[in-house]
Every structure is written in structure tokens, then in C-alpha cells.
């Protein structure tokens, strides 16, 4: 009888552990979502801005995204005059296109200080799809654009701060690289529970080899005020708008819904196109820091969707 009782206790214990893994994290996520939707962050002066490749921009370009490189080079030349803190190009640039347009974009990249380019993690086998060498040589950093939606409900609540390919080559998240480069910081200082970048402490949760960091999205009605955007066509039509990019972290990416390949579900319900759907992480500021605002405002941290 005694052994049957001990066996019953053991079975109850194992079931409790299993149920905790199965349902505990889900309950935690739903509680997080409820709190998240009720919270309204303070709006501060924007310190990042989006150069948006929107529907109007694509409609004005011959062959759409296939012809984006020359207009992008023209826009970068205008923006560089305004002296942005950093320029983050969230477009995959692996293939060869028109030779003249490629040369023009490469020249624009060479003239762009604090340039961050994106790498895409491919499967079978896992490998990095990197920018072409003539583009990559001008980059201060390359960051990954890998998303990790929750396996239970497909809501993206966290991003992996780093990712590895099959050869264990690591890339930091493009948002983290944008923050690091815009602060003139070196390699992140790592500990078992957090990273330190530019005097800011960034906590994370380990999941296997990944370091996960919670995402703080702006509410839909606040997103474009918190992180303004200017369309590529608008800028080219009115070069005086380049002054809006002065001393900000500039994110270049596709916002045209016809080209978006990875619309993500958010705690606000439904899915949204970028930039709102792609990550405004919130780090801790427990360390003394010269930063006047958190990472998501300093570097924008609005990674945009994939489009080659």
C-alpha cells in the first residue's frame, strides 16, 4: 500500500511538471498579452525613422523590387548629407542584378557611415544568405532577421538576440547591431543572463542555444508617431525631406503589403505589416548609462520584413 501511495505521488508530480510545461508558459503569455495591451508607453522625441519602400514607391519604379537598387542609392545619397547616426538596410541583397545599378548602390554604401546590412538564415542545411561582397565590404555590421513566433499560437513575443548557422557562425539580431553601431559600442559583453551594450544591460531568457528577448510593440495607433516613416518616392520627389533623417537611426525596408513575406502576429491581435509587426525590444537600464532613452527608441529596433 505504501509503495502504491508513493507511486501515485510520483505520477501526480510528473503530471504537474508536464502540465506546467504544456500550459504554464501559455498562461504566462496570455497574462503578458493582457498587461501589454493595457499599457501605454510615453511618447518621446523620435530617435529613429523608417525609409519605407511602400506601394507608391514600388509603383513608381520600373520592375518594382527588381529595380529598387538605383532609387535606393539615390535616396541614400540624400540621407547621408543629413548625417544619420546609422543606416540599417533590411533588404536581402545576395543576388546580382543590373550591373550599373549594383555599382551605384555599392558606391552609395561606401559613402554611408555606420551601415548595417541584413543576413537571412536559410534551411537545409542552415546557412547564412549574406549580402554580395561588393555590398558587404562597406557594412560596419551584418545582423540576422530571424523571427521566432510562439509555437502555441504563432504570436511573436520575443526575438532571438543571436542566431547560428550549421557551422556555428553567429549573427546578432539586426536590431541589436543597430543599437550597438549607433552608440559606437564594441562587441557585446556576455554573461549567463544578460548582455551589456554601450552601458545598457539587456536581459534575456535562454531557449536552447538562443537568447530570447521580449518585444515591446507600440500600440497600433501610436506606431507611426513613435517611429515616423517617409516613403522612398516621397523623399526622391522632395529632397528637402532628407533633413528629417538627421541624427537618427534610419531603417530601410519594405512596407508595401504586396511584397511582405513575413507578416507576424502580435499581442494586439491579428497580423500587421511592418514596421509595427517587427520588434521594439525593451532592455533593462540597471547599469549607469550615458543613453538618454531605452534601446527601442535610440535605435528604432523595428526590423522590417524580408524582401529580396
What does this structure look like?
The protein has 9 helices and 17 strands. The chain is an alpha/beta fold. The chain has one domain (47-298). Strands 1, 2, 3, 4, 5, 14 and 15 form a 7-stranded mixed beta sheet that branches. Strand 10 (194-197) and strand 11 form a beta hairpin. The radius of gyration is 21 Å and the shape is globular. It starts with a helix and ends in a 10-residue tail after the last helix. 38% of the residues are buried.
Helix content estimate: 25-40%
Structural class: alpha/beta
Radius of gyration computed on alpha carbons: 21 Å
Structure annotation, total helices: 9
Which percent band covers the strand fraction? 15-25%
How many structural domains can be distinguished in the coordinates? 1
- Shape, principal axes of CA atoms: globular
Poorly predicted tracts of residues = 273-280, 282-308
What is the typical, i.e. mean, pLDDT?
A: 78
- Strand-and-helix sequence, N→C? HEHHEHEEHEEEEHEEEEEHEHEEEH
What is the number of beta strands?
Answer: 17
Distance between the termini: 67 Å
Largest sheet: 7 strands, mixed
